[in-house]
Inverse folding.
């Protein structure tokens, strides 16, 4: 898109979602990413359609820790549950937690990034110092401690929010709290350059409030950046959830892929040669994170061509 | 190097560590009930008098701020991190001290291998951009980047320890083994170290290659590289003497910044192989809700990462005068 003098040097998304989508899947990385994620989205929406309801220790009928057979295509776990059943149902848990954690992360990051960049001054200085702090420290260990403490304070029960157990909601917020800083930094730097543009000045001169300017002028112009960033945040959130579940912070009643890996390790599956226990869930994690990473790069290219060479 | 640059960096590092100490204090006090209840509450026959006496002895009846906070700060600075709940009241520093060696060995070596291989692979991919090494290396790097470290470990364990039987499956040495000499001990240690080490190195190498690749590609478009080429220098000389040194700096900084993120995730590798380091300690402490040990690990890792960053900053400042301004 040619940029004329006097026109804000901002690339707006093409009107028309179809045109945009065409452009995305015309690239090989975009196509592969969209294809993989479509499959997992379908599995996440209706897991019971493919493998029936989630098997529990009570409803399990199979032999214990049996290798794949005709009846159990991916074998069984130590309780006799079908690994295929568990893995497909875990898709929903992993994807939903990843999605919610991404929403929380991007919300915090975008609000702090825009405000910090636009308002500037002391607020900006303090926010960015805190962001740097979170960028440097080993946030994963902080996430472990926070999850443990918040769960102890709230009490572990079988309470659910929106059909998700409270223990997993805690994970959503802990991921949000510990991973917003990169998003905030990126959005702040874009806001800083937007703030100097003529149309923002004009709005300020005719009496637009800061709140109005941030919402109606800055936000629409950082949306592309937010979308491209969200996809990468999603990948990170799934990895973090997996790792938290692996160290024992998952919920056995709503198993995610990470929870399955934790169970497999506890039973000693790699040492017993029970590859079918953890290879399916592991493959799903790698595929989904890989797809999000590919899609993130493709989106970045399509939405923000000008940002490509900058770092 | 400018003394002001040095002071500013050191101050920033100290501020981060200070914030962690404050965070630890706040988190500890945010726990359900109060600290003495966690320690004594589960024991039978604890009367109100005993509880009161304990509170007084530990200074928990004093106001949180400034009295308790100052006392906490004082003991932390002196290296007193409290006592482990799970290890029957042994000092946290002693528990940490036992586990730090294996972790340093595993991650020191792992990081070193990953940095050398990753930077070499990244530089070569960027130089021969679009070539077969670039194509395959980039794909492999992306897949490795998408794989949780511990999952890689489980796969290697399955294939090379359980399947092929080339390496032992867990621990740092063979349990109950006696050695005839130091060489035999080293051989045993090495065979136990091999798989976790490969896991750490493979897990990290992908992202380092990606970082280095984009850094070199960016450098290759700079004017001085064009100038060097125009002067008729050979292509490998341009790469080695003009592009690489400049591409290396930002990469090394990024590696240092990512350290906190990477190390904390990579400690899960230890869990897979039962490597007796800080990673397994973290998971043990977590399942026992041994908060003092968890916070000790957090503080220790943060201090390590902050110092690594500080050193990277100072080296960068020394090598590249532009950042000192």
């Amino acid at each position: 898109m040619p940029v004329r003098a006097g026109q804000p040097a901002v690339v707006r998304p093409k009107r028309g979602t179809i045109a945009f989508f065409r452009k995305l899947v015309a690239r090989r990385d975009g196509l592969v990413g969209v294809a993989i994620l479509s499959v997992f989205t379908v599995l996440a929406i209706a897991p019971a359609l493919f493998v029936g309801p989630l098997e529990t220790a009570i409803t399990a009928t199979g032999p214990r820790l049996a290798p794949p057979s005709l009846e159990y295509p991916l074998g069984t776990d130590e309780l006799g549950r079908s690994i295929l059943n568990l893995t497909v149902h875990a898709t929903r848990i992993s994807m939903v937690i990843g999605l919610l954690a991404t929403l929380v992360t991007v919300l915090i990051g975008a609000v702090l990034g825009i405000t910090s960049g636009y308002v500037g001054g002391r607020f900006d200085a303090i926010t960015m110092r805190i962001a740097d702090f979170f960028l440097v420290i080993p946030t994963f260990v902080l996430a472990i401690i926070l999850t443990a403490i918040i769960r102890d304070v709230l009490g572990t029960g079988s309470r659910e929010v929106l059909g998700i157990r409270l223990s997993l909601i805690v994970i959503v917020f802990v991921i949000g709290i510990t991973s917003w800083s990169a998003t905030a930094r990126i959005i702040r730097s874009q806001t800083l350059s937007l703030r100097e543009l003529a149309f923002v000045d004009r709005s300020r001169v005719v009496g637009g409030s800061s709140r109005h300017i941030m919402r109606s002028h800055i936000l629409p112009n950082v949306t592309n950046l937010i979308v491209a960033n969200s996809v990468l945040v999603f990948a990170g959130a799934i990895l973090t959830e997996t790792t938290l579940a692996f160290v024992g912070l998952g919920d056995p009643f709503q198993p995610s892929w990470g929870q399955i890996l934790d169970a497999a390790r506890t039973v000693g599956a790699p040492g017993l040669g029970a590859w079918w226990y953890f290879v399916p869930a592991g493959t799903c994690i790698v595929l989904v994170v890989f797809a999000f990473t590919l899609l993130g790069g493709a989106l970045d290219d399509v939405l923000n061509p000008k940002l490509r060479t900058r770092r | 190097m400018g003394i002001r640059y040095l002071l500013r960096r050191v101050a920033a590092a100290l501020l981060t560590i200070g914030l962690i100490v404050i965070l630890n204090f706040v988190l500890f006090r945010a726990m359900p009930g109060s600290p003495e209840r966690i320690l004594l509450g589960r024991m039978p026959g604890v009367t109100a008098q005993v509880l009161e006496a304990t509170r007084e002895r530990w200074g928990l009846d004093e106001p949180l701020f400034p009295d308790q906070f100052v006392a906490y700060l004082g003991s932390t600075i002196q290296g007193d991190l409290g006592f482990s709940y799970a290890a029957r009241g042994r000092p946290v520093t002693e528990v940490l001290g036992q586990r730090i060696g294996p972790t340093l060995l595993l991650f020191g070596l792992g990081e070193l291998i990953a940095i050398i291989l990753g930077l070499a692979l990244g530089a070569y991919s960027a130089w021969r951009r679009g070539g077969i090494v670039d194509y395959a290396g980039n794909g492999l790097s992306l897949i490795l980047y998408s794989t949780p470290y511990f999952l890689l470990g489980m796969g290697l364990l399955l294939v090379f320890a359980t399947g092929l039987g080339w390496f032992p499956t867990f621990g740092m040495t063979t349990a109950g083994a006696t050695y005839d000499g130091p060489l035999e001990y080293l051989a045993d240690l090495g065979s136990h170290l091999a798989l976790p080490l490969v896991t750490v190195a493979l897990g990290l190498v992908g992202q380092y290659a990606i970082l280095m690749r984009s850094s070199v590609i960016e450098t290759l478009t700079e004017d001085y590289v064009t100038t060097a080429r125009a002067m008729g220098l050979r292509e490998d000389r341009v790469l080695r003497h003009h592009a690489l040194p400049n591409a290396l700096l930002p990469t090394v900084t990024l590696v240092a910044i990512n350290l906190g993120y990477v190390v904390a995730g990579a400690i899960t590798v230890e869990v897979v192989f039962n490597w007796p380091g800080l990673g397994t300690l973290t998971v043990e402490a977590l399942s026992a809700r041994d908060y003092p040990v968890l916070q000790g690990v957090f503080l220790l890792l943060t201090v390590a990462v902050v110092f690594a960053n500080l050193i990277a900053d100072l080296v960068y400042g020394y090598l590249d005068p532009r950042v000192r301004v």
Remarks:
- Residues 1-9, 307-311 of chain A have pLDDT under 50 and may be disordered.
- The first helix of chain A runs from residue 17 to 26.
- Strands of chain A lie at 160-161, 164-165.
- The radius of gyration of chain A is 22 Å.
